[in-house]
Amino acid sequence: MQSITLNAKTRNLILALFTMGAFMGSLDTGIIGPVLPSIEMAYNLTTRQSSWIFTLFIISFMIGSPIMAKFSDFYGRKKIFILDVILFAIGSSLIAFSPQY
């Protein structure tokens, strides 16, 4: 196996991109935490019941990520990225127009 030598600037750029990816992933999983008390209050849930919300979010994220990656291999990354942004906008719109309790 042939080894590839990277200069310091390229190596630091790759490290920064991986770090940014990890940071974005941790932000994504941190979305549910601040809203759990509001969800518990609105639906009269116990803490034990509301923990399933976080669990289902993480499971759907873990299942959806490789599926979307495979779709991007088939249909192209740009098309799937645009689809993801549209799905995010639809979801955000549904949340914005949902009734307040």
Summarize the structure.
The protein is mostly helical and about 100 residues long. The protein is about 80% helix and about 0% strand. It is built from 4 helices and no strands.
Count the DSSP helices: 4
Which structural category do the helix and sheet elements fall into? mainly alpha
Oligomer status: single chain
Beta strand %: under 5%
Report the C-alpha radius of gyration, rounded: 19 Å
State the total count of DSSP E strands. Answer: 0
Helicity level, as a percent range? over 70%
Question: Would you kindly provide a written description of the structure presented here, covering whatever features stand out?
Answer:
With 101 residues, the chain is an all-alpha fold. Helices cover 82% and strands 0% of the residues. The chain has 4 helices and no strands. The chain is elongated, with a radius of gyration of 19 Å. The N and C termini lie far apart (61 Å). The model has no long low-confidence stretch (mean pLDDT 82).
SSE layout and pairings?
Elements: H1 8-29, H2 32-43, H3 47-75, H4 77-96
Distinctive features:
101 residues, elongated
